Amino acid sequence: MDVTTARERLEDMLVELDRSIGVLQGDPVAVREHSAADAGSDLTDADGAQAMLTVATAQRRAVIEAIKRVEEGVYGHCVDCGRPVPEGRLEARPEAARCVQCQGKRERRR
Ligand SMILES: [Zn+2]
Question: Where are the zinc fingers (dksA C4-type) (predicted)?
Answer without folding.
Answer: 78-102
